[in-house]
Amino acid sequence: MSAEFDTTETLDVTGASCPMPVVKTKSATDDLATGEVLEVVATDPGSMSDIDGWAAGTEGVELLDQNEGDDVYTHYVRKTE
Amino acid sequence: MSTDIPDNSPGDASETSSGNAPSRAELAVRVDELEESLAEATEDDDTKKMSIIATKGTLDMAYPPLILASTAAAFGYDVTVFHTFWGLDILHEERSGDLKLSSVGNPNMPLPNAVAALPGMDRLTTRMMERRIEDNDTASIQELLETSLDMGVEFQACQMTIDLMGYDEADFYDGVTTGVGAATALQDMADADIQLLV
Fold this sequence. Notes:
The complex is a heterodimer.
Chain A: E1 9-13, H1 20-30, E2 37-42, H2 47-57, E3 61-68, E4 73-79
Parallel strand pairs in A: 1-2
Antiparallel strand pairs in A: 2-4, 3-4
Chain B: H1 24-44, E1 49-54, H2 59-74, E2 78-83, H3 88-91, H4 113-116, H5 121-135, H6 141-150, E3 154-158, H7 159-165, E4 177-180, H8 182-191, E5 194-197
Parallel strand pairs in B: 1-2, 1-5, 2-3, 3-4
């Protein structure tokens, strides 16, 4: 599986369940510079809806894409400001 | 300082007029100031606030306030959680690791109340729940609390119930606010976009 974006960092939250994928994604995006992209790898099926909702409700981040693989959910989040 | 001579020159905006009536220039300055402070106030209101009152100290009821608090912090909200009565145990460094699940009065338990009330049953159901939490990789209460503290959530321990329960301020996690009461909680709720009682 190749990333469709130039990702700066990858955050592995496999195994973690709600609310940790969102909470750790937030902390990881704080460490990015504007324009950089974070790849988040999760196994929590709820992360599809949760990271989507978090990105929509949070200033300064943009959800670029979400992919669903075999029990793996990958999210791409760009820091916009 | 203003002079005693009335200044009637219309082009001079910086001079102060005599007497009590403010000059047009003074009013213009004041309007600018007010517009500036209005803009600042409006800007501050963009940060959403959530206020939770946590009153329960069982293992199952400790989760909702902490999950919502940490998630709201991830959204950039200002979050305050006011802990009172049994909710204090969530902030209690020693007791937070030993929260229990009650097997009595819970219709979701596969046990009749008469059996659930037997000695040792709460310990058994608590252990079962702890096992499930571990197997499911669900964060522990301490992990959620420490994560929330790191994210800037303000945890408050109600002073009246600290005294009532015979707890000491030093019993709580570092970063927990003590010496607060209902008025503080009410003020937070009045300012908040979301208010929850758990």
